[in-house]
Amino acid sequence: MKTWSLAIATAAAATLMLGSVHAAPVTGASGAGAPPLPGVTSVVDFDAQSNSSFASLTLGSVTFSGIGGNLRTSNQYAGQYNGRGAYYLDNNAGNTGGIRFDFSSIVSAFAFQWGASDNTWTLAGYDASNNLIESFVTPITYASNAGDYIGLSGGAFKYAILTNSSSYDWVFVDNFSIVEDQGGGTVPEPAGLALAGLALLGLGASRRRRA
After folding, report:
1. Which of 28, 62, 90, 202 is most buried (CB neighbours < 10 A)?
2. How far apart are CA 54 and CA 57, in angstroms?
3. CB neighbours (10 Å) of residue 144?
4. Residue 210: how many CB atoms within 10 A of its CB?
């Protein structure tokens, strides 16, 4: 009976763990501050940059790359459209239809100020094996300057891709905040499935022994 109870408890624990592991969108408005991610490790801003364009730019542990065109740092609308510092990142005045964010190490959450969007975009986060973890359609911010931010949490993200749903939209990014994965805090969903499977196998073996 003790073995049977232990197997049931193990299976239940694995099921609970599996159920609790789920990446989710992060949205809100943070006023003058950076996105308030719990346990934030670092915040990448663009204040030390100049008015310039580039195919990719690495700042801290994040590499920003244009998809189908260049990105640029600018101060043209500093302090507006959710830009919070002297400079912000944009998609080359709307001429680049996507932005890729690569992390030097696994992060469990990230978010950034998001401004001037007139259309919906899709933000998708991927693991180191190129598996999609989570994606969602971003809110439209228009001329808001309330500190609107978007992001993803609850995963083991190695990179993310932000893509435009239409042919043109000039958007701003600032205060890119990340939470580095500390190991063991986030269990990827495939690992959770394997754990649940092992627990169920143990349950079956215990039952056979009792029979």
Report:
1. 90
2. 7
3. 17
4. 10
Type of residue at 8? I
- Residue 103 near residue 61, CB atoms below 8 Å: yes
Whole-prediction pTM value? 0.80
Helices (H) and strands (E) in the chain, counts: 2, 12
Residue 37 exposure: Cα atoms within 13 Å on the Cβ side: 29
Instruction: Find the angle CA(206)-CA(210)-CA(211) to the nearest 5 degrees.
Output: 115
Q: Which amino acid is at 54?
A: F
User: pLDDT per residue over 109-159, tens digit each?
Assistant: 999 999 999 999 999 999 999 999 999 999 999 999 999 999 999 999 999
Task: Confirm if 151 and 35 have CB atoms less than 8 A apart.
Answer: yes
In degrees to the nearest 10, what's the CA dihedral of 104, 106, 108, 112? Answer: 20
